[in-house]
Amino acid sequence: MSAPFSIQCFTCAKCKRLFNASAEQNAMVINNSTGAVVCQGCAEPGNTSSLAPYLQMIQEATMAIPKHVPVKPRDLEAQTSQTTRQNQQEKSIRIYETMTQLNIMDRILYDAQRQGRIAFYMTNSGEEGNHVGSAAALEDQDLIYGQYREVGVLMWRGFPVDQFMHQCYGNSKDLGKGKQMPIHYGSQEHNFVMISSPLSTQMPQAVGSAYAFKRQPNNSRVVCVYFGDGGASEGDAHAAFNFAATLDCPIIFFCRNNGYAISTPTTEQYGGDGIAGQGPGYGLHTIRVDGNDLFAVYNATRRARKLALSNKPVLIEAMTYRLGHHSTSDDSTTYRSADEVQKWGSGDHPIERFKAYLMEKGWWTEQREQEWALQVRERVLTAFAASEKIQRAPYHEMFEGVYDKLPAPLRRQRQELDDHLAEFGTHYPLDRHLKKY
Amino acid sequence: MALRNIALLCGRTRGVLATRGAAHFNFQPTEAPKEYGEERTKMNLCQAVNNAMDIAMATDPSAILFGEDVAFGGVFRCSLGLKDKYGSDRVFNTPLCEQGIAGFGIGVAVAGSTAIAEIQFGDYIFPAYDQLVNEAAKYRYRSGGLFECGKLTVRATWGAVGHGALYHSQSPEANFTHTPGIKVVVPRGPTQAKGLLLSCIRDDNPAIFFEPKILYRLAAEEVPTGDFMIPLSKAETVRSGKDVTIVSWGTQVHVSLEAAQLAQEKLGVSVEVIDLQTIQPWDEEHIVQSVKKTGRLIVSHEAPKTSGFGAEIAAAIQERCFLHLESPVARSCGWDTPFPHVYEPFYLPTVWRVFDSIKKTVNF
Fold first, then answer.
1. Around A356, how many Cα atoms within 13 Å sit in the side-chain half-sphere?
2. What is the C-alpha separation between B2 and A437, in angstroms, rounded?
3. Is A119 in Cβ contact with B162 (below 8 Å)?
4. Per the count of CB atoms within 10 A, which of A141, A189, B137, B360 is most buried?
């Protein structure tokens, strides 16, 4: 059995004396400014780090995940010195209404997929708090990049319910003109970049945008990029963290750690201390919050925004739980217990927790709850029914947007399709599409 | 006229395209040759893949299967039961990272163990592109044969599924056929999936096996239960004919078969349909012999037309069979756009587009 590698003897870089390090523990130190190994006698006071007498692996950090504590009424951190109690109340109610509207819309659209009315859907159940809490702490001009489970963020920004519907139906009023699957939202007006399915590709992109903003005179915009515990394993996440830190970008990395990447639990996703544990390694200001605590999310994002605006990138890891299935193509009962879901759903729901706060403040009542639920349901169902009737865009739209202008060979392909449909059109669902805009 | 013909002619079947979930084709089962084994059982493509992996792992103790979500059975259930049977050291989830899955798989193979690496959707294979193109494909060549990763097989889902849009429908084979050193294989049904996958796993070259996701449940037939392999780089004539040759692979073989049937009934044209099976290295000789017989060739694939593998076949055939050709080689493919969501029925090379192509080819 060989002895562990150890540095037995040192020579002080300054006085050149020889020291037996294992016999004289702490005899040697490292000079922080020069990196030289010197003896205590030659060390500059206050400018040294201790030298381990033998090779020592850094123990894995064991940053404990904050234990869930019941919500104590707390106020939103003041956005400006002019924030009044009235503003607090209005904002809090608006936050709650957004979270609950999202929850109701999710249920309706999930059922719609089950009924075969839309092709696909992903819910946001259990994550309403981390969406709206972070969105409410940002400014409207901040650019947002999402993964696919951040509907509450877009909803907070004011994306109308009927636009969500149009996108799910892919009809002619969909901003994306029906090219993408449902839930792939985006809105230039609301500074929310169009979602794409590949994971984490948005992360380095977000950093690039942040850098471009930094170069604008009097920049007042940060970028906030959302991703999940699974997405954080992609190579693009590493690239993004590293670029943000080395290039001092005004960006907030918001990780929704919801416990699962489809069926893969976090125990199989990383070996270290979550995503937050990686942040300091890259040089990012890092905070881990209880993602189901609206205040924690809001206040952390507020603080992060301030840092980011001074070009110090921040990583927020919001611990939460994915109550729903990954998507309508998933059945999570095959890999997790009903008990586990129940425990989170009834014991730690962001909506319930925030509601308790509002009720205690006297800003919300059970009666208001019932009225609101009916109002939202009707709004959503009306939008849904209307959207279903709207036809799809003309099929020529399929050829648009490949490039800024339609290239000649593609125009010939479009003509080829036109000619084909002239003869065989009865075999195609032309009646579902507008003839022209 | 047969009821089926009436349905086809009045477009009712194709009208079904408008209904959510209905496929744009009918799966045509084939009967497996006797030499693959007498004992058979009904399997769909997903079960056939599962069966192939089961046999591979039973016969090769070094074989391991890994990727995203494979432990619980996989998002398409292709790995169902394998973790329980072979243990979590042999069937396991990796972190969510395709470049990692590919690189890791190469390393497993270099160390002499058999790696079955799953990429959940072919659309997500691109982070792994560097590893596959620059490493896997070149390992043997660049080392004078000292090192190789032939024990690597990458499985990825593939092709149109009805509502997959840009990122759940792609057919990325041409991105890899352009790279010498890697094999690319696409099965058209359960029997082919089992036999070809076993061949890929046991072949001494890194291979990418694309599984048509729309066929996982939809394609079911009697599949031999034993250990059998279908040779790589061998095309199969699925329907004999003398007037026109159609070459296709995967789901599109079934579309081509329907178009061929229509051509027979409506035009009296005899169409030969060939399933290429191995896209690279492809069975050029088999196609040449067919085209020398028919004098007319159509290649049909879902992937966009420009630089699709049809372009390679067309170029090679006009080189080899120029004087035999009665008409230009036609390609009935996806348009040169990203794969669109609601426009899918207009995007795909449907039965009617292939039929249209046959008509134009014989009337040239």
1. 14
2. 41
3. yes
4. B137
Strand partners, A315: A253, A286
Of residues B99, B341, B356, nearest to A181 (C-beta): B341
Q: Do A402 and B347 touch (CB under 8 A)?
A: no
Residues of chain B contacting residue A263, judged by C-beta atoms under 8 Å apart:
69, 71-72, 75, 93
Which run of H or E residues covers position A30? strand A28-31
For chain B, helix, strand, coil in percent to 5 are 40, 20, 40
The pTM assigned to this predicted structure is: 0.90
Q: What whole-number distance in Å separates Cα of residue A427 and Cα of residue B168?
A: 25
Contacts of B95 in chain A (CB under 8 A): 230, 233, 264, 268-270
Peptide bond preceding B33 in cis form (omega within 30 of 0): no
Nearest to A228 by CA among A220, A239, A237: A237
Assess: ipTM above 0.90.
yes
**Exposed/middle/buried for residue B199 (C-beta within 10 Å: 0-12, 13-18, 19+):** buried
- What is the DSSP-derived secondary structure letter of residue A174? S
For B228, phi then psi, to 5°, come to: -135, 155
Q: In percent, how much of chain A has pLDDT > 70?
A: 87
Are the Cβ atoms of A120 and B163 closer than 8 angstroms? Answer: yes
Task: Give the C-alpha separation, A142 to A156, whole Å.
Answer: 13
Q: Which two tokens stand for residue B73?
A: 């059975």
H/E stretch holding A289: strand A285-290
Task: Please compute the mean of the pLDDT values over residues A347-361 and round it to a whole number.
Answer: 93
Tell me the mean pLDDT in the region B309-337: 98
What CA–CA distance (Å, rounded) separates B5 from B1? Answer: 6
Q: Measured between beta carbons, which residues in chain A are less than 8 angstroms from residue B341?
A: 119, 170, 178-181
Residue A398 is nearest to which of B72, B347, B355, comparing CB atoms? B347
User: Which residue among the candidates B24, B68, B98, B301 is catalytic per the annotation?
Assistant: B98
Is residue B168 annotated as a catalytic residue, yes or no? yes
Asked if B345 and A233 come within 8 Å (Cβ–Cβ), the reply is no
* CB distance B196 to B142 below 8 Å: no
- Give residues with Cβ within 8 angstroms of B22, minimum separation 6: B16, B162
Alpha helix stretches (DSSP H) within B180-244: 190-202, 215-218
CA distance B211 to B227: 19
Rounded-to-integer distance, Cα A18 and Cα A300, Å: 51
Three-state secondary structure string covering A353-392: HHHHHHHHHCCCCHHHHHHHHHHHHHHHHHHHHHHHHCCE
Q: Beta-strand (E) ranges in A232-279?
A: 251-257, 260-261, 264-265
pLDDT tens-digit readout, A94-148: 999 999 999 999 999 999 999 999 999 999 999 999 999 999 999 999 999 999 9
Please give, rounded to a whole number of angstroms, the shortest distance from the CA of B126 to a CA of chain A: 10
Residues B212 and B250 sit within 8 Å (Cβ to Cβ): yes
